[in-house]
Design a protein that fits this description.
- The structure holds 2 protein chains of 2 kinds.
- Chain A is mainly α.
- Chain A has 11 helices and 2 strands.
- In chain A, α4 packs across α7 and α7 packs antiparallel against α10.
- Chain A is globular.
- Chain B is an alpha/beta fold.
- Chain B contains 13 helices and 14 strands.
- In chain B, α5 packs across α6, α10 packs across α13 and α11 crosses α12.
- The radius of gyration of chain B is 23 Å and the shape is elongated.
- The N and C termini of chain B lie far apart (about 50 Å).
- The chains are: A mainly alpha, B alpha/beta.
- Chains A and B meet through α1 and α5 of A and α4 and α5 of B.
Chain lengths: ~260, ~350
């Protein structure tokens, strides 16, 4: 079978711009989580739990979890944007239908949604970084590289999310990837404890296929200003999977919507 | 009233002025273009157009053409294939087979160029609930790549054209059903389209809102726009359409001007009388064509006076009405027959 590679165009940025406009219409609500969340986690887990943990691999516990908070935020902001929010726009608001009656193609629309998911990751990671810098738990200037990196990581999670959105029968069934994929990943990707304490098979699994594990590795290398093992592997993993899921999700969405 | 007309006139002038004058001159010099259409190329041309969903033949080989400046209607009961046909014209649903061109361009090859000049009013309201009335137009204009200043000016004009200027900063959810439909019409005009495609433009509207919509569509037609619409409301089709087709089960049953179709399929006049055995016997004696609908018989005849007089004098019919034949008679007799097959 001949599979057409989707060809989105620069029109995608018009879709991106629509979402950007909506985001900044309600910016007060939208900027609450990236500023409040890290403070809560740092206080409760970093300082609270950190008293009992002390150091992990020679690093103070707050410094250890700070990059994980960034990585989790990149994942959540882009994944939930391109699952529930995109689904609402597609299915309930019929926004995509309205868009494809204009010169925009369905490829442009989905690409715009993905780019927006990535942008949301960048916005949240940047806002959170400000808080982490204020707490003095990340190194400068290497941590600034988290900002461009968060776009790439966001693109990866947006693409994965959009694949689920393309195949989900309804909005309720999006709970499956949310609870069976995102929640376990949130806990078992070297976020709050190192992967090395896990059974070896799980370690291999995490390093081999869990997207968040890769994102945590790269982010932690940047905030600690020391490349960890697997840094380059993870970066390459993220870049290649982001590309694959970008096109795959557009393909699947086109299959769903163009009938 | 003065305000409305002013708004409408303004609109047709903000379209390209030359374009407008050209079109009027063209129509004056070619009075017959909307009839047989030989001198001009059709705006839309479908040949052997088919659309299948699995085993369901939603559109089953239709051939039609829409001429410039014409209001062309697709009529038919639910599931006849009207909406599917609109979606193929809008370049959003690919045809299973057949040829479909819009502005002389193939819908499969040039969707972006076609859509640039298309104004679409969908059956389902799909305004953007995250924006206000005015913002809906501005955001939509951006999808067409219309520069911001031009989009703003045009949007304000269109809001006054559809009488929504007072609601410009209101969120979509606060608009009534009729206002939403009007805003969708305004949105469809934001790119100064050469062709308007309206799928049930007056669905669910009260009579006031419906008349306003008709008035706007008439204004647009007078300015030389080509309009394609689907509707369930036969009165609407009779008022608006120059030509129409009646579809059922994915096929076109008849095509023509509403008046011609009425004359051809229903006769100038229709006589209705109470359904009694005696009336039926009388009609059979005269040899008149009639149909039974509930407790009434409908007689189609080109000699209505004669039939009515005969019924009244000899057949004790109870009630007898003579009325003008309508598109509804054509529609019911055609699609009714198809259902009995």
């Amino acid at each position: 079978m001949h599979i057409m590679i989707p060809r989105p165009t620069w029109y995608a940025w018009k879709v991106w711009r629509r979402n950007w406009d909506v985001f900044f219409k309600t910016y007060r609500v939208n900027f609450l989580p990236p500023f409040v969340e890290p403070v809560l986690y740092l206080l409760a887990i970093g300082y609270g739990l950190g008293i009992f943990v002390g150091e992990i691999e020679g690093i103070p516990y707050v410094h250890y979890i700070a990059p994980a908070l960034l990585a989790i935020s990149m994942m959540n902001s882009s994944f939930f944007e391109c699952t529930y929010s995109s689904f609402v726009r597609m299915y309930y608001q019929k926004t995509f239908d309205a868009m494809i009656s204009t010169p925009l193609s369905i490829e442009d629309v989905i690409a715009g949604e993905l780019l927006w998911g990535a942008t949301r990751s960048l916005i949240y990671a940047t806002a959170m970084l400000v808080v982490l810098v204020a707490f003095g738990v990340v190194s400068l200037p290497s941590s600034l590289l988290v900002i461009p990196f968060s776009f790439l990581a966001g693109l990866l999670f947006s693409g994965i999310a959009m694949c689920f959105t393309a195949i989900t029968p309804g909005i309720d069934t999006l709970n499956y990837p949310a609870f069976l994929f995102i929640t376990p990943m949130f806990l078992f990707s070297g976020t709050f404890f190192p992967l090395s304490v896990l059974p070896e098979a799980l370690q291999v699994f995490a390093i081999g296929v869990l997207p968040l594990a890769q994102v945590v590795t790269v982010t932690r290398s940047l905030t600690l200003a020391t490349p960890l093992p697997f840094f380059f592997y993870s970066l390459a993993w993220i870049a290649s999977c982001a590309t694959v899921f970008f096109f795959l999700s557009i393909y699947l969405m086109k299959k769903r919507l163009v009938v | 009233m003065v305000g409305k007309n002013k708004g409408a006139g303004h609109l047709s002038f903000t379209r390209k002025k030359v374009d407008f004058t050209e079109r009027v001159l063209f129509r004056v010099n070619n009075p017959s273009i909307t009839r047989k259409g030989l001198p001009v190329k059709p705006i839309i041309e479908g040949r052997g157009l088919r659309k299948e969903f699995g085993t369901l033949k939603a559109v089953d080989g239709i051939t039609f053409s829409v001429m410039p400046g014409e209001v062309f209607g697709f009529l038919g009961p639910n599931g006849a294939g009207k909406t599917t046909t609109m979606k193929m014209i809008e370049c959003v649903a690919p045809a299973t087979s057949g040829i479909l061109t819009v502005f002389g361009l193939d819908v499969n090859r040039d969707p972006r160029r076609i859509k640039r000049w298309l104004g679409v009013v969908p059956q389902e309201t799909n305004l953007d609930p995250d924006f206000t009335t005015l913002e809906n137009l501005l955001v939509y204009a951006r999808y067409f790549g219309i520069p911001a200043a031009e989009a703003r000016q045009r949007s304000e004009e269109l809001l006054s054209f559809v009488q929504l200027s007072e609601k410009r900063d209101v969120p979509i959810e606060k608009l009534s059903g009729g206002m939403k439909r009007r805003l969708i019409l305004a949105r469809a005009l934001v790119n100064s389209p050469r062709l308007l495609v309206l799928d049930e433009p007056t669905i669910g509207l009260d009579p006031q809102a419906r008349h306003l919509m008709w008035e706007k569509l008439k204004t647009l037609q007078a300015a030389g726009n080509t309009i394609v619409l689907t509707t369930h409301y036969l009165e609407e089709a009779e008022r608006l359409c120059n030509r129409l087709v009646i579809m059922d089960h994915g096929k076109i049953l008849v095509e023509g001007a509403p008046g011609d179709l009425v004359r051809q399929y229903a006769g100038e006049d229709v006589i209705e009388a109470d359904y009694t055995p005696r009336v039926v016997r009388c009609l059979e004696e005269i040899g008149a064509r009639f149909e039974v609908h509930g407790d009434m018989v409908q007689v189609f005849s080109d000699r209505p006076k004669e039939v009515a007089t005969r019924l009244l004098s000899d057949c004790n019919p109870g009630r007898v009405f003579v009325r003008r034949g309508s598109l509804e008679d054509v529609f019911l007799s055609l699609t009714g027959r198809a259902l009995r097959d």
